[in-house]
Structure formats: C-alpha cells, structure tokens
Amino acid sequence: MRCLIVASGDSVNFDFLKSEVAVADVVIAVDGGMDILAKANIVPTIWLGDMDSTRLDYQLSESIEIVKLNRDKDWTDLEAAIEFALQRRFTQIVITAVFGGRIDHFLTNISLLQKYSDIVKIKMLDEKQTVFLLVEENIIKVKKGSTFSLIPLTDLKGVTIKGAKYNTDNLTVELGSSICQSNLALSDKLEITINKGKALIVIVKEEKLFS
Predict the structure, then answer these.
(1) Residue 86, SS3?
(2) Which secondary structure element, helix H or strand E, spans residue 148, and what is its range?
C-alpha cells in the first residue's frame, strides 16, 4: 500500500503531482499542502495538521477525512503524518512538496528519512529530484544519464558503486566528504553497496520530463 504525503514546502509541477496521485492508494495533505493540491484541482483522502499554514478557504468534500492537530505539540505536522501513515499500515510512503522554505524545516524533513527508513520504505521527491536513505546493498533503477550524489550521514566503510561514470571499490568516505558528489549513471541500473554507515542518495531527474 502506497501513501502519498503532500507537505507544505515549495510547490511542485502539477503534471508530476497528478502522476504521483494516480499511483497512490491514499493522499494525505499536510496542513498547507492542501493549498498545493487545491491549486492542482486534486482532492486528498486525508487533511492532517494544525491548520496554521493554509492560505485558502475551502468548501470541503465530505469524503475528506480531517485530522486536526494541536498547535502545541512535540513534533512537526509532517512527522505526525508519517506516524499516521504507519498506524494505517502503509508499506510505502512517498513525500512531495517537501523541499525549499526555511532551512531548519528542510533539514528536519531530511532527518525524518534517517529516522523512518528502518521501519518503512520512504522517499522524498519532486519533479527534479528524488532522495532516500541507502541500505547495505542497493539496486537502484535510474534513467541512464541521470546525475546522482551520495551524501554521508556517518563515516562510510566499503562503498562500492557499479554502473556509474565514477565507480568505486571498497571506498572509505568520511562524514562531510564531497567525493561522491555529482556522479553519472551509465546504465538504467546502479549497484551501490555500503558495508558500514548510512548515506542519502539524491537522484536528479531531467527537467524535460515535466516541463
């Protein structure tokens, strides 16, 4: 079961958004994410949040489940939405409209990938890029010619990359190193192994896919 969460960061391309809605079993609007969906003429399944970020007035469909959160709470609306999705037993969580805005919000959102990746398949994306946490052995489907970067969250041991312009074999990567920045996929499949440590992968899409 696939859950699409629409956050309240920078807006996304509407054609891209509709393509993600089409393959989702449930769509959760997180607070101001409702504004993004409304502008794209998309009705979510659930609207969740403390409702302090929305800018539009709505005549809501009776089909929308509303989950109102207190403004004084110990986590963000986005983390609450992820927890809500886990309670509903979704096996895949895709989050969009999550980039941009305040840097503290952005960094906290990225940190949620590290927190939840051991529990559920989770990624963040828009029409330009996809971000997720790598596990020990990864076979990743990409478009040939895509740019990708590995961003270490810890020191990394035994990083092996196959199928790229810059392949590696049992590489050690220190936290903060940029050695794995801006690589190039030479096929439609990347094989990435990390013996020890955690890293994000960012895959940059071709802009012409959603012009």
Answers:
(1) helix
(2) strand 147-152
Buried residues in 102-125 as b, exposed as e (16+ CB within 10 A): eeebeeebbebbeebbeeeebbbb
pTM score: 0.90
Tell me the β-bridge partners of 129.
204
Measure the CA dihedral 138/114/36/92, to 10°: 50
**CA 46, chain centre distance (Å):** 19
In tens digits, the chain (211 residues) has pLDDT values of 999 999 988 889 999 999 999 999 999 999 999 999 999 999 999 999 987 766 666 666 678 898 988 887 888 999 999 999 999 999 999 999 999 888 998 899 999 999 999 999 999 999 999 999 998 888 999 999 999 999 999 999 999 999 999 999 999 999 999 999 999 999 999 999 999 999 999 999 865 444 3
Q: Which domains does the chain have, with CATH numbers?
A: 2-127 (3.40.50.10240), 134-210 (2.60.120.320)
Sequence-ordered list of residues with C-beta below 8 angstroms from that of 96, at least 6 positions apart, any chain: 4, 5, 6, 7, 12, 16, 17, 20, 124, 125, 126
Alpha helices in the chain (DSSP H): 14-22, 33-39, 77-87, 103-116
Tally of helices (H runs) and strands (E runs) in the chain:
4, 14
